[in-house]
Amino acid sequence: WNAKMFNDILENENDHLPAVIALIQQLGGAPRPKPTFRGLLQPSLRAFGSVSQIFENTGSGANVGAAPFIFSRQVLTAAGSIGFIEARHGGWLNTLFNDVISVNVFDEDVSFERGLTQEEAFAVISPFIQDFAGAQPPAFTATPSRRNDLAILDFVLVVEYLENE
User: Fold this and answer.
1) What is the reported pTM?
2) What is the mean pLDDT of residues 27-40?
3) CA–CA gap between residue 98 and residue 75 (Å, rounded)
């Protein structure tokens, strides 16, 4: 059963990645190159699951954290849709490892998802990023605009690359 669930998560992540890339292109942007990652090979299934739990809970919180700065309803819908699925993944992983279903990436038991700032999300995932393949680290502002939507999607893309990997 657990192997099936991990495969289901992988299938979802495989669907998220091209969807984010297509949305960036539809909005007139160019998707960033895939970063080079490090530290993803884990010594045990438990360690792999723990890293997966971190990534999924970070993805959920990062999408909530970016939502107030999104200009386009289309981008907000996509980010929300992906964030909800990340939360389902995180909830399942939380319970698999005997955590409370609603615990977040900071091990806080919450009734409402705590939106992560991009700095918080980046602090969690940056140890797994070796380099950005010639691109700048992703960054968006607190001012909603079409340009900022592309920057937010660029940030989401880095998280999706990592989760997909």
Assistant:
1) 0.93
2) 96
3) 34
Between CA 17 and CA 36, with CA 161 as vertex, the angle to 5 degrees is 150
- Please, are residues 145 and 27 in contact by the beta-carbon 8 Å criterion? no
In whole angstroms, what is the distance from residue 99 CA to residue 143 CA? 36
Nearest of 118, 112, 12, 108 to residue 56 by alpha carbon: 12
pLDDT tens sequence across 149-160:
999 999 999 999
CB atoms within 10 A of CB 46: 11
Structure-token pair, residue 106: 């900071």
- For residues 30 and 8, give the distance between their C-alpha atoms in angstroms, rounded to a whole number: 29
Q: Is 79 left (phi over 0), alpha (psi -120 to 50) or beta?
A: alpha
What distance in Å separates the CA atoms of residue 53 and residue 59, rounded to the nearest whole number?
10
Tokens read off for 164: 């997909």
